[in-house]
Amino acid sequence: MDGMGSMGSMGSMGIDIVHIPTFGEQLDSPGSRFAHVFTDRERRLCAAKANPAASLAARWAAKEAYLKAWSNSRYGQPPVMHIDEVNFAEIEVVSDAFGRVAIVLRGSIGRIAPPAAFLSISHDGDYAVAVCAV
To answer: In angstroms, rounded to a whole number, what is the distance separating the alpha carbons of residues 80 and 60?
Structure first.
């Protein structure tokens, strides 16, 4: 066996890193694609943080990391949907009462995509990062 046959049964990981200052500029630009990628709950939660742009950047990294993990779980198979068809607001990063994060899938992605088994997000200085497993 070449090691690839069991890849899907092991699960898959995705990671993403975001440069917070650049993300913040894009977030504030009129007509930015980021105007519709977050849910109202994500925006409210991040608005209450000391650095809202860093918190939103970490959530953006989480959404990207989730999509990478999902895509990697289908190694050798065609994608289920094209990236342009993804409604990023359907990939919601939620927090529990203790600040631990998870991904909740809604809408069309919720009907076809696997659940996230693990999510970790962080930000420090100019960077936000997320790691996700499906």
So the answer is: 21
The CA distance from 31 to 105, in Å, is: 25
Spell out the alpha helix ranges (H) of the chain: 7-10, 20-28, 40-47, 52-73, 107-112
Q: 26-59: per-residue pLDDT in tens?
A: 998 988 888 899 999 999 999 999 999 999 999 9
Neighbours of 23 (CB within 10 A): 21
β partners of residue 17:
129
Under 8 Å between Cβ of 119 and 132: yes
Residue % of the chain over a pLDDT of 90 = 80
Judged against a pLDDT cut of 80, whether residue 7 lies above it is answered with: no
The Cα 59–Cα 93 span in angstroms is 6
CA–CA separation, 68 and 65 (whole Å): 5
Q: Which residues, listed in sequence order, are joined to residue 118 by a DSSP beta bridge?
A: 133
Site of tokens 């650095």: 51
